[in-house]
Amino acid sequence: MNGLPGPLADRSRTAREDAAEAIASEGTGEDVWSAWAGWRSWPEPVLPDGPVVVLAAHPDDEVLGFGGTAARLASSGREVHVVTVTDGEASHPGSRLMPPPVLARRRREELSEALDLLGVNRRRRHRLGLPDTEVGKHETALAQWVGELLRTSGATLCVTPWSGDLHADHEAVGRAGHAAAGAGAIALWQYPVWMWHWAVPEGPRVPWHRCRRLPLAPAELALKKSALRRFRTQIAPLADHPDVILPPEELAHHQRSFETVIVETGPR
């Protein structure tokens, strides 16, 4: 998860303005989501057998959206590949203490610590190093690369950020994953990240009928919470950059006893 998103590809000017306003707003509190009965009726999706490929636009997206489930899969011996598309070097623009090359290295280190905790095999971690905030410019090449990984790994499930998340990089990665999974007839699930901030229960932008719950055992949730604490550059301010990317009210959306996916293709 990175800060405010860049311009959204393939959207009207009005939609881009709406998106920027929604992201910049105070956001929907976790107390509102907790009081909503809607998600209690979401079924649990069937996890297909075989390897799973998880895509993330920035280091931490994969843990925010799918970390607990990834831990469960890894602990059961399932082959889990994690693809981190950018290094998240643009999350603190203007910082002299942590300019982009330094921040990129730090965020890679944080992700490595987090994935170690979740039990993801280091040989199945893939760093692409595409430019942060500019993933859309590389979408076609990204889809081809992901398609090749899906093929060579024998993956039966591809998990990506949601292509409606109102963040340009998240959406581009979601579209690229959709194209790659579709070409290989592979099941595709997408996890929301920013959605919990800008959406409201029953809001019209979200395909609620395709949302599914992935329950987390207490040990899995504990691992996820511990992994999220490794992203120190995102959960605490820098001395010269007081804005916190993941303040407690945002983290609360991603520390529930379940994770949410939007089923695009595959068993529903």
Automatic annotation (TrEMBL):
Q: Look up keyword Cell membrane and say if it applies.
A: no
Q: Does the keyword Membrane apply?
A: no
- Stored InterPro entries: GlcNAc_PI_deacetylase-related, LmbE-like_dom_sf
Q: What name has this protein been given in UniProt?
A: PIG-L family deacetylase
- Which species expresses this protein natively? Streptomyces brevispora
Which controlled-vocabulary keywords does the entry list?
Zinc
The family database entries (Gene3D superfamilies) matched by this protein are listed as: LmbE-like (3.40.50.10320)
- What Pfam families is this protein classified in? PIG-L (PF02585)
